[in-house]
Amino acid sequence: MKISQRASHIQPSPTIGMAARAKAMIGEGLDVISFAVGEPDFPTPEHICAAACAALEAGHTKYTAASGIPELKAAIVGRLQTEFGLDYDADQVCISNGGKHALMNIWKTMLDPGDEVIVFAPYWVSYPVQIELCGGHPVIIMTNSSRGFQPDLDEVREAITSRTVAILINSPSNPTGGIFEREILEGLAAIAAEHDLTIISDEIYKHLIYQGREHLSIAMLDEETRQRTILADGVAKSYSMTGWRIGWLVGPQQFAAKAGSIQSQETSNPCSISQYAALAALTGPQDCVAQMREQFEQRRDFFVGALREIEGIECNMPPGAFYVFPDISAYLGRELAGRKIATSLELAEYLLEDSLISTVPGSAFGAEGFLRLSFACSVEDIKRGVERLKAALGA
Ligand code: GLU
User: Fold this and answer.
1) Pair 90, 14 in one domain
2) Of 27, 51, 231, 272, which shows the fewest CB atoms inside 10 Å?
3) Which tens digits make up the pLDDT trace of 277-329?
4) Within 10 A of 270 (CB to CB), how many other CB atoms are there?
5) Which DSSP string corresponds to 5-23?
6) pTM score, whole prediction
7) In the structure, what pLDDT confidence band is assigned to residue 382 with cuts at 50, 70 and 90?
8) Same domain, residue pair 247 and 334
9) Which atom of ligand 1 is nearest to 125's Cα?
10) Per residue in 64-89, is it b (16+ CB within 10 Å) or e — as a string?
11) One domain for residues 351 and 383
């Protein structure tokens, strides 16, 4: 059967792929320690599940408005106001089937063939693929662990062409956990203003920031920047609601309306029950978020400490998100257990097959020489995983 050119180039998401492989091996009875997927291991808080049951009982089982229920839009703009002082109207929101879908809506609404989007590497695996699927061209700018993965603003200026339409920011970042400092955000905002670019700010990890540090959205810098920014977000990471698939974009009213029109043609509304659950998440008690964050912070401290003790591994302390992103380049080019390991992919394969540890290779994020390990798992698993890692590396 014919397969389109577009589809023939597509590979499955490596994060989802690695997690699925680990799950399948666990299903076969193997004791795999999974550091692959970015998915909180906590159950969805009880009051959120109860709201979903109540929505079912109340008969909220039919189509909703394609871009989401008004109550959830109001809750989203309410939270942006109270938490970050950002003023939006409910008609500036389009609610989708997860943050990933919200991003896809953004690219579809924004991009014409050949339009360029500046993307910082290491990047989340799906950004370049999504942009290309929508006819755009991701222009990758590398950032370095030695600078805490902060971009060089001169490199951004040099990368801009007459086709550049947007700059994509993901702070805190998946996979590095890095957070763009205020002066970097200010520099990017100035560049965007100078070249009349849109800023897309994926803030899915905004509640997972450690050591008491607070989230700074680029939209908070000034009114002009806010107006040229589109926020992408969702409930998955903050409320341990990955499977419920609720995310959203917030931006100019006309943009949100167009995204809603695309969605009404493509998928109709996101799941009605999930929308009511997300409403309870945003309007209910928030201590669950703080409790999960505390646990993540303890795991992060332990994980980084343990990795830094392994000879040859260098690991930044991630200020946000729930990933460690160690530099493992010292182990590339070596022979481990009789296997020649040349790339981060070969190392990840070796770790999974030989030591039953699932990770995601840095190459999937545009950063060869690194591995991503999620600490959305117990300290016990982290301890066992690091022991296995040490043994596998012969360290
Ligand atoms: N964002 C998560 C991760 O990076 C979930 C999987 C995905 O959608 O890529 O692991």
Assistant:
1) no
2) 27
3) 999 999 999 999 999 999 999 999 999 999 999 999 999 999 999 999 999 99
4) 28
5) HHHHT----HHHHHHHHHH
6) 0.97
7) very high
8) no
9) 9
10) bebbbbebbbbbbbebbeeebebebe
11) yes
| CATH, residue 384 | 3.90.1150.10
Residue 37's pLDDT band (cuts 50, 70, 90): confident
Question: Atom 3, ligand 1: which residue's CA is nearest?
Answer: 38
Q: Are residues 76 and 225 in the same domain?
A: yes
Domain count, the chain: 2
Of 141, 188, 185, 195, nearest to 165 (Cα)?
A: 195
Q: Which phi and psi (to 5°) does residue 40 adopt? A: -55, 140
Out of 256, 283, 310, pick the residue that ends a domain: 283
**Nearest CA owner, ligand 1 atom 8:** 16
Quote the domain boundaries for residue 89. 46-283
Give me the CATH number covering residue 271. Answer: 3.40.640.10
What is the CB < 6 Å shell around ligand 1? 13, 15-16, 37-38, 100, 124-126, 174
Please state, as a whole number, how many other Cβ atoms lie within 10 Å of the Cβ of residue 297.
17
Write down the residue that tokens 């070596």 correspond to: 334
